[in-house]
């Protein structure tokens, strides 16, 4: 069994992983830039262009069937003009999700496809429902996309240390993580986002996402709890329909959707996830 790390060694380990995926910091910087009302319109372009890999993927996505434009983009400027600057955060999120989320989490027994679909579905669901609740939809999108990134940290730590330990689903995930490596993925994810300079409130939400979410005073934590349940049962239509019925989760009272509307919303998001996935696979 792995000896639990000290606080300092834990931070150093997570920092080293953060450096491996340093371009994720572009997402946090872009979020800050887009929220600044005084930002020059060319600033998002310059920021995205600072990473060649992201730039290339974004241009490809804008030219994909996902957006359906006949005229092709050949630069970040034309891609953003065509798709819309209000889509910049989502475009960068898509591009980065391909790099960070489309990888197998062997230690958890989760395939790259499953992990990406789970994360992206959660992001879109939170983004859409946040608008209903009068919350910041970009903030909700980032929370949904990044809430489980701590699993990447733990998986990479175990891989780097050549520790072949696999999550037994009969043991709660948090308990298995603590026994195996000494910290849970929520704490690891929050620290990683902090290293990438994401807003403190986002880091806090990631770390506390499992602290009695149904009773949380934070609607985004409660909404995430519901979104995770839905995402986990997309392959089980009967169970999914049951989760859409009134009373299945406390947050439903605030969403203003009946069971049929909610189920339709979920299936529409699932179709969108399929479209985005196909576009990213072709990039």
Automatic annotation (TrEMBL):
Residue intervals of the HDOD domain: 20-212
PROSITE patterns, A to Z: HDOD (PS51833)
The protein's matches in Pfam families, at most eight in alphabetical order, are given as:
HDOD
Q: Which InterPro entries match?
A: HDOD (IPR013976), RNase_Y/CdgJ (IPR052340)
Q: What name is this protein filed under?
A: HDOD domain-containing protein
């Amino acid at each position: 069994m792995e000896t639990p790390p000290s606080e300092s060694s834990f931070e150093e380990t997570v920092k080293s992983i953060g450096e491996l995926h340093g371009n994720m910091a572009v997402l946090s910087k872009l979020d800050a830039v887009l929220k600044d009302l005084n930002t020059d319109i060319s600033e998002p372009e310059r920021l995205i262009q600072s990473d060649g890999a992201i730039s290339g993927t974004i241009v490809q996505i804008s030219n994909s069937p996902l957006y359906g434009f006949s005229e092709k983009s050949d630069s970040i400027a034309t891609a953003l003009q065509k798709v819309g600057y209000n889509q910049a955060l989502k475009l960068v999120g898509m591009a980065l999700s391909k790099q960070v989320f489309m990888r197998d989490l062997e230690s958890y027994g989760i395939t790259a496809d499953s992990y990406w679909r789970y994360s992206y579905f959660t992001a879109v669901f939170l983004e859409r429902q946040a608008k209903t609740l009068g919350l910041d939809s970009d903030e909700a999108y980032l929370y949904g996309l990044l809430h489980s990134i701590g699993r990447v940290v733990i998986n990479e730590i175990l891989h780097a240390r050549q520790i072949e330990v696999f999550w037994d689903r009969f043991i709660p995930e948090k308990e298995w993580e603590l026994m195996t490596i000494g910290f849970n993925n929520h704490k690891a994810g929050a620290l990683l986002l902090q290293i990438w300079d994401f807003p403190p409130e986002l880091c806090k939400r990631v770390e506390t996402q499992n602290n009695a979410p149904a009773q949380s005073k934070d609607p985004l934590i409660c909404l995430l709890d519901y979104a995770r349940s839905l995402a986990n049962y997309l392959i089980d239509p009967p169970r999914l329909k049951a989760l859409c019925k009134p009373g299945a989760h406390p947050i439903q009272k605030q969403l203003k959707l009946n069971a049929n509307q909610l189920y339709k919303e979920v299936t529409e998001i699932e179709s969108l996830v399929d479209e985005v996935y196909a576009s990213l696979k072709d990039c």
